[in-house]
Amino acid sequence: MTSDDHASRPTPPRSVDRILLTEPAALIAATPHLLGFFPSQSLVMHVVNGDTLTVTMRMTLPEEPWQYRSTAQHVVDIVRSHHGTAAALLLVSASRTPTLASHLHAEFAAADIPVEIFGTPAISKGSEWFSYGPDQAHGEIPDPTTSPLALDSVLRGQVTYPSREALAATLAPDPDEALARRATLITAIQQASAADHDAVEPKYDTVRREIDRTADRTTPLSDEEITALAVALDDRRVRDRCLRFTTGRRALAAERLWTELTRQCPAPQRAEPALLLAMFAYIRGDGALAMIALDRALEARPDHTLAELVRRAVNRRIPPGELADIVDVSREWAF
After folding, report:
1. Do residues 165 and 257 make contact, with C-beta atoms less than 8 angstroms apart?
2. Which of 131, 160, 204, 328 has the least CB density, counted as fewest CB within 10 Å?
3. pTM of the complete model beyond 0.90
4. Mind telling me which InterPro entries this protein's record contains (predicted)?
């Protein structure tokens, strides 16, 4: 079993919650917008607390029947960790998986957590959805692109990607030639400034000024700007100070800058903006983007201790608010 995407985007408005919780077809049509992409071969978990949909997560469907029971137990643990009072599960697969659904029903019954389990071959207009429950309800999925949550996502400026692969492509590194050119510049900067290693404030000011400029900037960063930022963030004292931007008026601009630098910086310097992007994304509820950014961080620097710790936290499905608490603690020693 592979689990690779966890927390959802920010919780939808309560009016949307009521639609999602009372109409299975609407819930299924909204799922891509809750995740940020259209899932396939997935087990999607919608965690409910009271009458509110609190978080949406997904994992890759287990490939072997012997994995079904442990998968079901794992899903129950996830729902419990998010204080779920009920859950709606969606199995997205071209093949029906009634045995997996049976294990899920059994484990949720043992945990005394109400659950509804639905299936569909694909989340698209006119595709069949069906219930794995005794009522054997079924129907057609409405157009996901015109659902209330699709409109809400557009109004929020959020993009729903056609697949997880398409989302991952948004963080694909720049061409090798550009990365090699910047790596050479970074080496030159590091050699020239070796004596100024303890000068944290100038490097931090470089990053802060660029965040402020990013809010209105319409042109790409130059090689010189990219490399100066890469060197600044490669000082982990500067990187840790940047955690202060997870909330407040600079948050969106900072995340945009981390996204650009994750693509533009060569390894190993790419690891630091990718880690910041992962933490920013997860705290605001975008677990899929967070995990992809963590992949980029660990590809660039496989021995990155903090990136590995954050990955473990996300894999444990700690609520985004708890990671925000960790950030708050980090602030006390970072400043």
Report:
1. no
2. 328
3. no
4. DUF4192 (IPR025447)
